[in-house]
Amino acid sequence: MNEVKDKLESFPTKEFQHDLLSWYKHEKRDLPWRKDQDPYKIWVSEIMLQQTRVDTVIPYFNAFIGKFPTIEALANANEEEVLKAWEGLGYYSRVRNLHSAVKEVEESYGGIVPNTPEEISKLKGVGPYTKGAILSIAYNIPEPAVDGNVMRVFSRILSIWEDIAKPKTRKTFEDATYQLISKEDPSSFNQAVMELGALICTPTSPSCLLCPVREYCSAFAEGVQAELPVKSKKKKPRPLQMAAVVLYDDQGQLYIHKRPSTGLLANLWEFPNMEIKADTKESYREQVKLFMKEEYQVEAEISELMGTVEHVFSHLIWNISVFLGKVTKNSTKDLLPVTEEEMKKYAFPVSHQKIYKMFQGCES
Question: Which of 107, 108, 172, 318 is packed most tightly, with the most Cβ within 10 A?
């Protein structure tokens, strides 16, 4: 950290700010959350952009703001509506936290997003990055907003060789950003660094010859831009063999199940599913039939394998074998019978959206 401080003492900060901001003002992308500095819209966009690409987020953002244009509208919406609007974006705890925090802003702050680090940090799901992004972009307060893009850019500019996968490293980059940030225009500065990381200073094959701040970059001068940032590898996700069954009855109803209110994919809807046991001679199909009877008191004629679906989480890979099941006897209250029209109201994780599409393909 002392090395970084020494570099910053002799760093041409004003010239760096000028060149970076000039480039940003000419080259920034026309993104819907940049139309104004509405703190609510910036908040929504920053939550959506966590672990999700910009081009994926744009249509979701436009639809979400169209449905919930204000804090009041989102605070008053029911969770089912909110999850449905987020359906397909993944990492659903983000939107549950956002919904909860927005309710608090409506109740405790009169619907106005707080503009102090102390107050905004208390809101559910608002970590150091989101706090800095909202305060700087919406309120023009010189707060660092350090994400992966920012750490990559400054690790190269300042030749910082600390492992960015370690939580304690963030402090190094927050301190560096605070030293470098434009106090006159922190909103544009933070967005410019993020934009540089997204368009020019990319994870692999950075476009150094197009970089507006190349002359300030230690990594470029030393020819080590491909080696930075230092990032230790995550553990590989664990594969899990699953089976799911699309149950239907003579009335054309399908049977769905709501996941628990905590944990992975909380409160989303899904088709009945189970983890397959490897230490048994029973086939997947027989295991599904037995599971339906024991878990849900449903007897069904289970088809041959309809297909498979793979879904990758950060820590898990679901390999789902998909079956079709015609209900012959049902005495459960744990499954909800719905028509295909009613299915549109419920939010499903991507894996179960794929399962439903597979079923629709079999129908046609």
Answer: 172
Model confidence at 89, pLDDT cuts 50, 70, 90, reads very high
Into how many domains does the chain fold? 2
Q: Alpha-carbon distance 112 to 286, whole Å?
A: 56
Are 146 and 269 in the same domain? no
Residue 103, Cα to own-chain centre: how many angstroms? 21
Give the CA distances from residue 8 to residues 11, 36, 178, 350, in Å, rounded to whole numbers and listed in that order: 5, 33, 11, 46
Pair 223, 314 in one domain:
no
Among candidate residues 227, 247, 268, the one where a domain is terminated: 227
DSSP string, 212-247: TTGGG-HHHHHT-GGG-SB-PPPPPPEEEEEEEEEE
- Which among 188, 207, 227 is the end of a domain? 227
Catalytic residue among 3, 9, 27, 46: 46
CA dist., res. 340 & res. 360, Å (int): 10
Q: What pLDDT is recorded for position 363? A: 65
Per-residue pLDDT band for 223 (boundaries 50, 70, 90) equals very high
Q: Which two tokens stand for residue 5?
A: 């401080």
Q: Is 341 a catalytic residue?
A: no
Mean pLDDT of 249-273: 95
Residues 171 and 53 in one domain: yes
The range of the structural domain enclosing residue 346 comes to 238-363
